[in-house]
């Protein structure tokens, strides 16, 4: 019989254990091992069945079980201890409060389309979401007052399974928000708080606001699946990265513009501080700047004044090194939605110009979300040093006339949240060996330098236990996968012997776009098979990853790989695990000896998976891309050589696959098995195991990785960098812009208007070199005189600069230096002479040029206004 009505029964906990509700509601349990251990102890079997979800665990207990727990004095005492510890964590001053003064922003808004906090809240697809989750967790541990903003997807990202012929299949189980660790934000009268956006055809898009508590950080998630919406609007937050066109655009309008509304409502209802800095994590949330401009224009500011104020306090982080990874819409489509009244009083054409590809190589009919993000933020960054360089090149068209190195996009290299990704066995190992010195307490970074003091045999034994733990998990998941593919239990006895705890284990897990090259390892199947089945130095591979549902090429790569893993000759040495998620990752990263990454360089923005492996003593085997490009030091793993520039894709993959096979066969495997390798011949030599079975050179690499990479890959390091290099400066700029009824923003806007109106009349008319010898030598000095016409502009509003340095055969300056020339005399009719001395500091080719650029105290970079006049 079908039920005629459905509702959720709320769990009511007896008073002695009522604190469990607070512990389950705060997602700190997902990285605080004592709290997770408490929940596990309540019923280990059910804990596994509910996939380590405390809300589901408590909901599974009947009244009798709850009463039994409430009468257990040990349980009650532990609940009280953990509740007290959580309260201390939430209220005590932490790094941010202890180290930064009153000028530090009281609230920072962080916008992202996805968040990977825990598998129990499946609102993530891959690296962007995991990074966002780690950012919030590290901010919480440090006390950084971030408020997160995102969307609550009814089905999250898809669940992946495989068909009998190894084709990826997707399902979208619908989530019940009442069964998630979320609280609905309500008005004082008890009604749900609502954000509302007008849509074309007199429709509206409304959303409720759910709050997740990520330690000290509130995360606001907007949910359009509410009765007040029509059916189309209810489906806007149906799934992460689902749909396209109008559907995706409406998701991003809700995230950005609705997200700002949600922040205002949250501050009003909780009494919290209004954000002083707005951080846009990728372009998906870019419309938040438009909503903020609307707010300021409602207060009487003009468009350009509001834009100046918003830019001053906005940070934009780009995560993609490829144009295809950026959301782009038709400008007409965006204009259609804007004209429905989304930003009343704000000129639509001005908004459209923010995302216009009005530069060489751009499409004038396209609205580019990343371009809008850059134009709305005074500060921008990539997520690794190499990615910063790639981003400066990729977006250089926005600052035409400036050298690529001057493009105002910095970099903050990503990090990973240590307590989330360090296996509990590793933390326990550190406490056992170092006691209080281990530094593994709440919110503390491990004392990485102590790794050198660990006996080799103890560390090697730990690594074997982690490998065993992974193998148990792999076998369970592999059996479940084969059952879903249609196999019978009788066929699957072979899965009991899949993988070996004493065999070198290599991991590869990530999203499966083509540039990450999941199947590079299959380039020469016979050679891969020989590596897997080597008689004395075998290798085993654990692989996982999801392809976007619309990516047929990615699905074919998965199918090709799985068909190889199905071969009875090798299936005990290589496995593909479907439905890669955070829960799988927390076993996979610690259990692998080597983490493999072989993207097309330089298309990996950062690639933090290898960082998580390193935190557990894994070594990296990777193309020099993303974070590995800057942190590989020759002792923490291996770098896969890349093909010469200009190689065809086929030739490139052949070269790099061959290099990968050679590294594994001649360097990685011999070292793991304790065999000395001759660098000259690549021949195996005597063992370095010294009779104790421990490969000491390998263990030394582990120790070096822990002590040197550990501090660098930490999300705490990353968040501290964001605070010092981006958030604090943005807060100061925002405060300066807002002072005196936004006098600073008005002044900057008037300055920019004045310069743009007169810039066409500015020119460097003539340049003289005085005192330059016919055969100059190092140490010689000469005078540069520049004659500049500056009609309609005050000389103090510009900087006249000599740009000099080594010069190429094409007369391009290489790594130039800049010297500002001084105003020497006014020549009349808007003409001036500027002068300065240059010194020749090195031999070889030398050249210089002269340019005029804006100068204003509120500008933080020379190219900011995109204005430049150079001597020809």
UniProtKB/TrEMBL annotation:
<feature type="domain" description="DUF3417">
    <location>
        <begin position="13"/>
        <end position="121"/>
    </location>
</feature>
<dbReference type="InterPro" id="IPR011834">
    <property type="entry name" value="Agluc_phsphrylas"/>
</dbReference>
<protein>
    <recommendedName>
        <fullName>glycogen phosphorylase</fullName>
        <ecNumber>2.4.1.1</ecNumber>
    </recommendedName>
</protein>
<keyword id="KW-0808">Transferase</keyword>
<comment type="similarity">
    <text>Belongs to the glycogen phosphorylase family.</text>
</comment>
<dbReference type="InterPro" id="IPR000811">
    <property type="entry name" value="Glyco_trans_35"/>
</dbReference>
<dbReference type="Pfam" id="PF00343">
    <property type="entry name" value="Phosphorylase"/>
</dbReference>
<keyword id="KW-0328">Glycosyltransferase</keyword>
<dbReference type="InterPro" id="IPR052182">
    <property type="entry name" value="Glycogen/Maltodextrin_Phosph"/>
</dbReference>
<keyword id="KW-0021">Allosteric enzyme</keyword>
<keyword id="KW-0663">Pyridoxal phosphate</keyword>
<keyword id="KW-0119">Carbohydrate metabolism</keyword>
<dbReference type="Pfam" id="PF11897">
    <property type="entry name" value="DUF3417"/>
</dbReference>
<dbReference type="InterPro" id="IPR024517">
    <property type="entry name" value="Glycogen_phosphorylase_DUF3417"/>
</dbReference>
<dbReference type="InterPro" id="IPR035090">
    <property type="entry name" value="Pyridoxal_P_attach_site"/>
</dbReference>
<comment type="function">
    <text>Phosphorylase is an important allosteric enzyme in carbohydrate metabolism. Enzymes from different sources differ in their regulatory mechanisms and in their natural substrates. However, all known phosphorylases share catalytic and structural properties.</text>
</comment>
């Amino acid at each position: 019989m079908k039920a005629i009505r459905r509702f959720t029964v709320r769990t009511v906990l007896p008073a002695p254990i009522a604190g469990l509700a607070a512990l389950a509601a705060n997602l700190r349990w997902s990285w605080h091992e004592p709290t997770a251990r408490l929940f596990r102890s309540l019923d280990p079997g059910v804990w596994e069945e509910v996939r380590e979800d405390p809300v589901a665990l408590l909901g599974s207990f009947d009244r009798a079980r709850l009463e039994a727990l409430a009468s257990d004095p040990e349980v009650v005492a532990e609940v009280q201890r953990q509740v007290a510890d959580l309260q201390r964590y939430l209220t005590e001053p932490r790094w941010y409060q202890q180290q930064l003064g009153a000028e530090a922003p009281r609230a920072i808004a962080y916008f992202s389309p996805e968040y990977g906090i825990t598998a129990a809240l499946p609102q993530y697809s891959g690296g962007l979401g995991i990074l966002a989750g780690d950012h919030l967790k590290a901010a919480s541990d440090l006390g950084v007052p971030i408020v997160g903003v995102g969307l609550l997807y009814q089905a999250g990202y898809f669940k992946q399974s495989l068909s009998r012929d190894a084709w990826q299949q997707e399902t979208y189980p619908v989530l019940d928000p009442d069964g998630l660790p979320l609280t609905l934000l309500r008005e004082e009268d008890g009604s749900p708080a609502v954000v509302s956006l007008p849509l074309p055809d007199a429709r509206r898009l409304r959303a409720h606001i759910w709050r997740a508590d990520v330690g000290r950080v509130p995360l606001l998630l907007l949910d359009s699946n509410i009765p007040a919406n029509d059916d189309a609007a209810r489906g806007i937050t149906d799934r992460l990265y689902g749909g396209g066109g109008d559907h995706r655009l409406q998701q991003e309008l809700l995230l950005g513009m609705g997200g700002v509304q949600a922040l205002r409502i949250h501050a009003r209802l909780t009494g919290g501080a209004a954000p002083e800095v707005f951080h846009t994590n990728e372009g998906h949330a870019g419309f938040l700047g438009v909503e903020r401009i609307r707010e300021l224009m409602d207060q009487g500011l003009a468009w350009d004044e509001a834009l100046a104020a918003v830019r001053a306090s906005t940070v934009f982080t780009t995560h993609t090194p490829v144009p295809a990874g950026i959301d782009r819409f038709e400008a007409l489509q965006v204009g259609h939605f804007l004209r429905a009244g989304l930003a009343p009083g704000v000129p639509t054409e001005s908004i459209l110009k923010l995302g216009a590809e009005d530069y060489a190589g751009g499409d004038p009919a396209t609205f580019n979300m990343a371009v809008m993000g850059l134009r709305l933020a005074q500060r921008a960054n990539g997520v690794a040093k190499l990615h910063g360089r790639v981003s400066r090149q990729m977006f250089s068209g926005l600052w035409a006339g400036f050298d690529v190195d001057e493009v105002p996009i910095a970099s903050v290299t990503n990090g990973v949240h240590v307590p989330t990704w360090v296996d509990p066995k590793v933390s326990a190992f550190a406490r056992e060996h170092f006691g209080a010195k281990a530094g593994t307490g709440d919110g503390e970074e491990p004392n990485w330098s102590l790794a050198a003091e660990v006996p080799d045999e103890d560390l090697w034994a730990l690594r074997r236990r982690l490998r065993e733990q992974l193998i148990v998990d792999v076998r369970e998941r592999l059996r479940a996968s084969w059952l879903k593919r249609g196999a019978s239990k009788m066929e699957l006895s072979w899965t009991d012997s899949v993988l070996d705890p004493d065999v070198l284990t290599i991991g590869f897990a990530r999203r499966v776009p083509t540039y990450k090259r999941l199947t590079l390892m299959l380039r020469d199947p016979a050679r891969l098979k020989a590596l897997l089945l080597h008689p004395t130095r075998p290798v085993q591979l654990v692989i996982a990853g999801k392809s976007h549902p619309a990516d047929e090429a990615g699905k074919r790569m998965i199918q090709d790989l799985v068909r190889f893993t199905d071969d009875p000759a090798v299936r005990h040495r290589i496995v593909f695990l479907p439905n890669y998620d955070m829960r799988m990752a927390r076993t996979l990263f610690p259990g692998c000896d080597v983490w493999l990454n072989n993207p097309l360089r330089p298309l990996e923005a950062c690639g933090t998976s290898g960082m998580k492996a390193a935190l557990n003593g894994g070594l990296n085997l990777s193309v020099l891309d993303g974070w590995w490009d800057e942190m590989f030091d020759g002792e923490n793993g291996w770098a896969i050589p890349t093909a010469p520039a200009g190689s065809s894709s086929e030739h490139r993959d052949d070269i790099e696959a061959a290099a990968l096979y050679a590294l594994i066969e001649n360097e990685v495997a011999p070292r793991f098995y304790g065999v000395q390798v001759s660098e000259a011949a690549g021949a195996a030599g005597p063992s370095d195991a010294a009779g104790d079975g421990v490969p000491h050179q390998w263990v030394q690499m582990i120790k070096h990785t822990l002590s040197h990479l550990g501090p660098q890959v930490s999300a705490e390091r990353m968040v501290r960098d964001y605070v010092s290099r981006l958030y604090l400066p943005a807060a100061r700029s925002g405060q300066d812009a807002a002072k005196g009824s936004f006098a600073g923003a008005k002044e900057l806007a008037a300055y920019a208007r004045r310069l743009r109106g007169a810039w066409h009349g500015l020119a460097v008319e003539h340049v003289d070199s005085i005192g330059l010898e016919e055969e100059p030598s190092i140490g010689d000095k000469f005078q540069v005189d520049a004659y500049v016409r500056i009609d309609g502009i005050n000389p103090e509003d510009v900087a006249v600069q000599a740009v000099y340095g080594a010069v190429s055969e094409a007369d391009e300056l290489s790594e130039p230096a800049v010297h500002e020339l001084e105003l020497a005399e006014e020549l009349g009719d808007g003409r001036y002479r500027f002068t300065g001395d240059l010194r020749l500091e090195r031999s070889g080719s030398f050249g210089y040029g002269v340019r005029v650029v804006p100068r204003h105290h509120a500008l933080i970079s020379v190219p900011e206004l995109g204005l430049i006049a150079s001597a020809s």
